[in-house]
Design goal:
Layout lengths: L7 E3 L4 E3 L22 H16 L22
């Protein structure tokens, strides 16, 4: 059987798959418990912020002559 990741949740008594998937009896599983604050949406938002912070810093300097199309409404142009 190939390696596959399945979404699931704990209903207070047992682990329930979020989508149906046929499993063989006694098949070995690895269960990873995700912290509440890192739910899928929060994890994507954190990753986005983290990658933007890696891409840009407060020390970045972009001279106005590097701008291809000036914005006439911007006070610095």
């Amino acid at each position: 059987m190939k390696l596959i990741s399945l979404s699931a949740h704990f209903d207070g008594q047992s682990i329930q798959l979020d989508e149906p998937y046929k499993l063989e009896p006694n098949i070995k599983l690895i269960v990873t418990v995700l912290p509440e604050q890192l739910a899928e949406r929060e994890a994507w938002l954190w990753l986005s912020r983290h990658q933007l912070n890696n891409a840009y810093s407060q020390d970045d300097y972009y001279p106005t002559n590097a701008i291809k199309t000036l914005n006439p409404d911007y006070a610095g142009s």
